[in-house]
Amino acid sequence: MKQIIAMGGGGFSMEPENLLLDSYILEQAVAERPRICFVGTASGDAPGYIDRFYEAFRTLPCEPAHLSLFKLPEGSLEDVLLNQDIIYVGGGNTRSMLAIWREWGVDRILRKAYERGIILTGLSAGSICWFEEGVTDSVTGQLGAIQALGLLPGSHCPHYDAEAERRLGYHALLQSGEIGAGIAADDGAALHYQDGELHRIVSSRPNVGAYEVGLQGGIVKETKRPAEYLG
Length: 231
Prior knowledge:
CATH class: Alpha Beta
Distance between the termini: 26 Å
CATH superfamily: Class I glutamine amidotransferase (GATase) domain
Number of helices: 7
Order of helices and strands: EHEHEHEHHEHEEEHEEEEEE
Strand order of the largest sheet: 3-2-4-5-1-10-11-14
């Protein structure tokens, strides 16, 4: 089975005292102690971000590791990534991350990982990247559309409840035709896809969810999809 868990926001980097989403991700793996690799390209492999990953996941039943594209590991990138049960992509600059991935062939490796049943997950940039298109703030002070990996259909907007300009920006991009219909997720909400279909929406916080967003007669229409609170 192919699985992607796309978080609008949350997880260890935003909620260090609330690891409900991170635990949920680990529970979807077959292994009792799944191998999970953090990919922090979008943050420039910020050391503090990587440290926080280890601090969180060393408290959970798993075998954590990370992949840096700025300080390359020994051996091939494909060997590192395809030897995981879960690949967890961090937040940051989506456009820069995708460009670096293409340069090193990581986009191709992630497609292979997906086909092999390795769970793909992440938040913010690490959520947008799995869809055909996304709403990104990669250029400071601007929201725009970006073409992503296309493993999941449609467009995606994270941080939907936390940053007012995200909702307005998504609507504006839809109305201008710069982006197609898709799904938005609040911080703390995770979209769990199985074999390309939305299977479940879960959350680390009460009263958050996801929204199917598109145009109807030239007007933006939102349909709320409530999440199952994991707490």
